[in-house]
Amino acid sequence: MTTLLLASASPARRTTLIAAGIVPVVRVSDVDEDAVLAAARARFGELEPADAVLLLAQAKAEAVTQLVEAEAEIAGTETEPAPIDGDIVVGCDSMLELDGEIFGKPATAEEAVARWQSMRGRAGVLHTGHWVVDLRAEADGGTGGTLGASSATVVHFADVSDAEIEAYVATGEPLAVAGAFTIDGLGGAFVDRIEGDHHSVVGLSLPLLRELLGQLGVTWTDLWVRSA
């Protein structure tokens, strides 16, 4: 059975995969997101939101790939490398686009409050980048491929009151997620509706991931964990 190695600390992404019948191995990257974006902007100029999330997803997937390959090399022998604890690495990143700007996680509670005051009663676009790396051996069908894509979902926010915003930010949830909101947690009541894939708003688009894996020759249903 093919195993996914999720390069993310997000409980929501892991839960989304498990609900879809896939139990990933989780390895978190130590990517400095601000440094990656700054380097890209210095080289290419201002980034489109879709390009920014794709770049970060790629950076996370490649960082975890390098980590597990290095660990396998150290643990192995000269003639027999140690097995890697996953077959396909999946990196993800999300940002909210509002008024032409992109926002990740708010740094402070004050920033989260201000963000919500600007979002309420309006619509933004949640961009999620996905990047996959095939670590399977050639004998096991591995392609050595690496590719990615991004998804975009329009999110319509409720016209919440200042009191509701203060109470929501006080829970700490908005500080831990891109865009300062969730649809699968406490923030769900503050989202009126979405246009697009709701899984993408949670942080990982299942249809898009299925498509990317298909390009690597991985059949989605082969990832399902089957009980005896």
Describe the structure.
This protein is of the alpha/beta class and 228 residues long. It has a single domain, classed as Maf protein. Helices cover 36% and strands 21% of the residues. It has 7 helices and 7 strands. Strands 1, 2, 3, 4, 5, 6 and 7 form a 7-stranded mixed beta sheet that branches. Strand 1 (4-6), helix 1 and strand 2 form a beta-alpha-beta unit. The radius of gyration is 19 Å and the shape is globular. 40% of the residues are buried.
Note poorly predicted spans: none
The N- and C-terminal alpha carbons lie at a distance of: 14 Å
> What name does the CATH topology carry?
Maf protein
Number of domains: 1
CATH class: Alpha Beta
Number of H- or I-type helical stretches: 7
The percent range for strand residues is 15-25%
| 3D shape | globular
Q: Percent range for helical residues?
A: 25-40%
Mean pLDDT across residues = 92
Task: Give descriptors for this structure.
36% helix; 7 strands; Maf protein; alpha/beta; 228 residues; 7-stranded mixed beta sheet
Topology record:
Blueprint: E1 4-6, H1 11-19, E2 25-26, H2 33-44, H3 49-75, E3 88-98, E4 101-103, H4 109-119, E5 123-134, E6 146-157, H5 162-170, E7 191-195, H6 198-202, H7 206-215
Summarize this, please?
36% of the residues lie in helices and 21% in strands. It has 228 residues and is of the alpha/beta class.
